[in-house]
Design goal:
This protein has 267 residues and is an alpha+beta fold. The chain is built from 8 helices and 13 strands. It has a 5-stranded mixed sheet with strand order 3-2-1-7-8. The two termini are 40 Å apart.
């Protein structure tokens, strides 16, 4: 029997086996008349249908009624189940078991709930592994190990003690700050640059706003490799293009970066 690893991080759930990474998708869900869409499919409609979308259900995993804030779904566990079941249907099977890589801040109740969801998916779980421990498989003698993790609405720094085994010593975290807020800042900055250069405001309509979020990861990757990049968005029957320098977006992340530095300094 082969093992499938599933890393539970709402910014990017990762599915992998011994051959490598099989899938990466964000913790997004969209409730429609036919059921619940999750992952990239839900992310691609989040700006178009915000009242039917959620991306906090892994962070706030719970059976509490009304915890999703969405009509037709009683709690966040239902959304988490929908995504977990979809992943297992696509990549699991009768010849596999699962290793779940879980956030350090999950409570005992949340870990039990996650195991219950896996059982409902007919997913045999071999073990639960702390995400910080899972990331520190290589030895670093006489070095202090700090695991820095970022989710959609939370960043954390975990101090590890490494001997014959790896132990979690302490976690420092900032709640309410994460990659979702950072992506929002970058998206708004891109929209401002389009307005300044072309007078076209991508945030004026839901369709063009969604295009910004869809293309933002690729734009950021280009600007990581090059000093400048051309950003293109559809507008009517034409395409609007602007040129952006890396420095024009770097400044937006300064507050987020300072928070990370302060977080690590507390360890």
């Amino acid at each position: 029997m082969s093992t499938l690893a599933i890393d539970i991080n709402d910014a990017n759930l990762i599915v992998a086996d011994e051959s490598g990474v099989l899938a990466m998708e964000p913790g997004y869900a969209l409730v429609n008349g036919k059921g619940v869409l999750t992952g990239n499919e839900a992310y691609g409609q989040a700006r178009l249908r915000p009242r039917e979308s959620s991306n906090r259900y892994w962070e706030q995993l719970s059976l509490s009624d009304g915890s999703t804030g969405l009509d037709g779904v009683a709690n966040t566990a239902q959304l988490a189940f929908a995504q977990l079941e979809d992943l297992w249907k696509r990549y699991g099977g009768p010849d596999r078991d699962a290793l779940l890589v879980v956030p350090d801040h999950y409570s005992r109740e949340q870990l039990g709930l996650l195991l219950g969801l896996a059982q409902e998916c007919s997913m045999p779980v071999r073990s639960l592994v702390n995400s910080a421990v899972a990331a520190s498989s290589r030895p670093y003698p006489n070095q202090q190990l700090i695991y820095l993790d970022a989710g959609l609405y939370r960043v954390s720094a975990t101090t590890l003690e490494q001997g014959s085994d790896v132990l979690v010593r302490a976690e420092q975290a900032i709640d309410g700050v994460g990659l979702a807020s950072l992506m929002d800042l970058w998206a708004k900055r891109v929209a401002e640059l389009f307005v300044l250069s072309t007078r076209f405001d991508p945030f004026h309509g839901a369709d063009s706003e969604q295009f910004v979020y869809d293309r933002l990861p690729a734009w950021l990757q280009t600007l990581q490799d090059d000093d400048r990049a051309e950003l293109r968005l559809p507008h009517g029957d034409k395409e609007v293009t602007i040129e952006v320098e890396r420095e024009q977006l770097l400044g937006v992340a300064s507050g987020f970066n300072r928070a990370l530095v302060q977080l690590v300094a507390q360890c």
